[in-house]
Structures are given as C-alpha cells and as structure tokens.
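pasting for ref
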Amino acid sequence: MIDKLLKYQQIDADLKAIETELRQSDEFKKYASAVKFLKTVAESKAQIESKAGALMGAMAALEEKLGKLNEEKAEFAAWDEGADEATLAYLKKKSNELAKQFSALEGEISKLSQDMTELYAQYKKLMTNTKSMLAQQEESKKAYEDLTKSKDDQKKKIKKQLDALAKDISPEIMQKYLEKRKDPKFPIVYELSGRHCSACGTELSQLELANLKAVKIAECENCRRLIFIKE
C-alpha cells in the first residue's frame, strides 16, 4: 500500500505544480490584489467620512468663536474715542489681546482648511483607485479563468490517474492524505530516516517508533507529515 501511496503522491505532484503555477501567475496576483484592495474600500471611506465630520464640526466651532470675537471687536470700536486715560489704556490692552486671539484663530482656521483639503485629496485618490481596481478585478478575473481553463485537460488526466490509484489505498490513509493536501506543504508522505522524520528531522521516541512499526504509517508529532518505515 505504501508503494501505491508514494505513486499517488508522485502523480499528485504534477497536479500540485499546476496549482502552484496558477497561484503564482500574474493573472491571479492582479486579481488577488484587486480583491484585497476592494475589501478595504468601505472601511477607508468610512474613516475619511468620520474625519471629515470631525473637521467640519471643528470648523463650525472656530467660525462661531470668530463671530464672537468680531462682535466683541465691534463693541470696542463703538466706544467713545474721548474716553479717559485709564479707559483708553484698558481699551488698548484689550485690543492687543483681541489681535492675538484673531491671529491664533486665523492660524487654526488655516490649518483646519489645509487638513480638509488634504482629506478631500485622499478621498479623490481612494475613488480613483477604487475605479481602477474594479476594472483590474474584472479584467484579471477573466484572464485567470481563461488560464485555469487552459489547464483543465491536464488536470482531468491527472485526477483520473489519482482516482484509479486511490482505490488501492486504505480509505483511512487516503482521507488523512487528502486532509493534509489542503495545507501548502508538499510532499506529504516521507520515509523515516533511521529514527528521524526525513521532513523535519525530529527523532522518534521508542514508543513512537514501535507504534509506527505496528501501524506502518503515522503522523509526525512535530511537522504533522505522514511518515512510514520502508520494509
């Protein structure tokens, strides 16, 4: 049965090679990158909209503050220019304070306007990239499907051979093999080298070695590959 399983794996390696070729193709990479990007669009858009809302709220608060300063400035401008010296000194001091507040406020408004401009640029870039990635997804998906179809005959031929071999292999072993076939690691079946797994080099204990001799094929406790002792 071990020979049949090794033969199965040998032929399966051809199928694995086709799968790897497809996964490493430019068509698949372009499709995968487009899908990955498009999955993030909704979240990125929500983040931008949230930031925009916060900036607009901050701008409204600054504009309200500016309005109050203008009202206060108008009140001081209406005071009688013939006020006494003490009043004039107070007005001058207050005027300087208002000037500083106006300057600081204008700086905040300018910075906020710049942030809003940059955020809008990010939004436009996101929309442009989204449009581009939608087109790439559609184009690369079609190209990948065509590439996959071009391998169908090869895959069918290999699978037919595998199905024939599987009939002579224990269903339990076959099930373990197919389960591990879902993992990227390949090959799956390795011969024991002395007392070591030839896949990862782990040394088997006396108990593990005795069990392997009894069941003929088992999982390596470290790398989980299937190992056997050649008789």
